[in-house]
Amino acid sequence: MFQSCETVGTNETHDMVSLGKKATDSAKAVILSLEKLQDGREYSLPCPCIPPEIRVGLSDLNPSSVKLAKSLVEKAVKMHKIFAIQGPYPVIRAALRARGWIEQRMPQQVQQRQNSDSRSNDAEEDNSEETEKEKEPDRLHSLMSRLVRNEMVYFYWTNRRDAICTNSLQKEQIVNHFAKAGSFTTKAGLCVNLRKLHWFDSADPDSFFPRCYKLAARDEKHAFIEDYRRTACTSLLKYVVEKDQHIQWNEICQNFQDVQWQKKQSKLHCKPLVPSETVTTALKVCQEYLESLEHGDIDKSLETPQTLTQEQWEGFLNSYYLVAHGRAQIERSGNFVSSCKAMLQKLEKVCPQLGIDGTQNIWIIKPGAKSRGRGIKCEKRLDQILRLVSMDSTFIKESKWVVQKYIEKPFLVHDTKFDVRQWFLVTDWNPLTVWFYKKCYLRFSTQPYSLDTLDSSVHLCNNSIQKHLRPSHQRHRCIPAHNMWLDDQFKAFLASQGKEALWETVVVPGMKTAVIQALLTAQDLIESRKNTFELYGADFMLDFSLHPWLIEINASPTMAPSTCVTAQLCTAVQEDTLRVVLDRRVDRSANTGDFQLIYRQAAVGVPLYIGINLVVEGIAVKHSRRFQCLLPPLKSSQLPSSKRCGAVKEKEPAPEKDKPLPKVIQKAQENKTSNSEATLSPALPSEPSISRVAFHLPVTVLSVDGGSNFEHLSKKHAEVQYHILDMWWQYQPLEKLKITFFQPEEEE
Ligand SMILES: Nc1ncnc2c1ncn2[C@@H]1O[C@H](COP(=O)(O)OP(=O)(O)OP(=O)(O)O)[C@@H](O)[C@H]1O
């Protein structure tokens, strides 16, 4: 289970020693528990890390072993301790067995399917060696597995949700995947969902998630092109400012008769000159963008010509490429330095991502639902980006490609790029309950960071890519050959730079906030189920000021002990997950290891069910004859006395389609004002008939209190709104929902 490292520095050696010790300790613990087992005092079973000599072999299966197996099975069945695992998770298996659980083997096909699968998690990176070890027969466990083959499984750990049939799950069965998590565990899902953040939090997703577009959607493609062009403008301004600083520095060098500099200068003079209008155009576009953010463009008529025509944009981008990628010079660029600086300062206040943009306008193009760096490419020219996705044959089929702004100025360790793998655990979606792992690890690139090449070996830090590459000779020797660091090693590095405090004040809080915000935006879409939990692996990058940027969230993050770093941390995170989801169920004060509860929503009370499905109360819009309700009316006598009201106006029921519509009381009162309000009191949120509620109100909904996902509320007719109510009720039962209607203009 614990593999040796290719190169281990002092720290790693220490880690391995402690790991080795851990393994021996756990073997000793198992021997002890086996000894206890003989006395019949404690039930605990050997785990796969036990040396073969103490494993129970076939010859050991004498009548007394069989008797022992039977009694253990009997006890496990009585205590509902039967588990099943799909995928290479020896740590989970060992930890469950140590708790007295007995495994029911999953059918062979389910186990095999995992290997051929290529979904959006990165679990397939897991080493086959572990799987081989798993196959090593352990006769006593095999016997017990056979004995429990017809028992109900109480704990499933799989690396894919569809490995088990979730429809037939009993309430008390625990599973490690929620349904519909793709809304934030796929690149396209995260890209789309984070835009809804304003409904849940005042935070701006642009402050922690690099802007991202789904290229297959026409409007998104258009938005991307606009973004690309605007970024070319800001990048040009940055270039002018940085160039000036560079020249100033070179002048200092020149004073010291730096020959190297002179050589470079002469080379530079051979480069083409780009007209200074390129900079004035960029400044103009930026100015207009600033005005549009302040809605200064709102009164412009649609006929007002755009800043640049398509052809002018092409001309501008060509000049920009010559400067930023070809290192051409800009005519009299020195004259624009102060205006470029001033414009960038203004933009900084309103564009939270200006800091991660460099001068090159690089974007990273990712297939929507793949993992381990497959199909990812960095590009810097607009035409190349668009051509890449449109020419790729998979693009036509795969409508989920996303293009994301590349973080051009990451925080580097000894000039090497890295990203951070951070785990978190969700144990409930309603109320949302999130556990953050206190430990994480860094994954380095094998090559020194440079924007002169856009090769994956430099820019993608996935272990599945980097493990095949030989580390560059230029890379600093502090970075180990296995390309990983524990968070503690990074903290030590920060300390050496005088930045130690930033880990606790900037990096960790930033990662926690990003995780919570990503989950909040997905909450309404996830199928919540009690006795379900899910461990996720979020990837972050740090910018030059150590601010974390969320790159993606993986369901079923890899647990492969591929290096000494992952061997240590993946083992720990799996054991701690079981502490949270199993030990804490029976003892609220149980040790949760390195998991820290960081978010728990206030519990949402389920309204008392009083036999009524839905109550609509409120003040009808003026001219209530136009109020049409498609719900079947209740006869007055059917109403509870408190709800009977002379003003109730019963409408013709809508023709029934396939199933009976819910009972609804509609209570409306005439009102003299043109505004109107209605309060809806939902019944049990699980009541399926809620989804049939439909209102046809010729009104515009102005505001909704207590709501969550009301994206479409500005739409004119409330038919759209019933769809929203439908979604909302499923996940967030509220006692009251107040909707303010606006009286529309009278129809002719
Ligand atoms: N916007 C970005 N800016 C800079 N680097 C990025 C960006 N997005 C991704 N990367 C780099 O590319 C790598 C792969 O990206 P990403 O995690 O999105 O892909 P993946 O194939 O799902 O990887 P995994 O399965 O390991 O999570 C990241 O680990 C990171 O090093």
TrEMBL record:
Biological source species: Xiphophorus maculatus
InterPro entries: TTL/TTLL_fam (IPR004344), TTLL_monoglycylase (IPR051437)
Domain of life assignment: Eukaryota
Gene3D superfamilies associated with the record: ATP-grasp fold, B domain
Catalytic activity: L-glutamyl-[protein] + glycine + ATP = glycyl-L-glutamyl-[protein] + ADP + phosphate + H(+)
Biased composition (Basic and acidic residues): 130-139, 647-661
GO molecular function, one term: ATP binding
Protein name according to UniProt: Tubulin tyrosine ligase like 3
The entry's keywords: ATP-binding, Cell projection, Cilium, Cytoplasm, Cytoskeleton, Flagellum, Ligase, Nucleotide-binding
Lineage: Eukaryota, Metazoa, Chordata, Craniata, Vertebrata
Pfam annotation, one family: TTL
Gene Ontology CC terms, in alphabetical order: axoneme; microtubule cytoskeleton
Region described as Disordered: 106-139, 638-662
Chain segments annotated as coiled-coil in the UniProt record: none
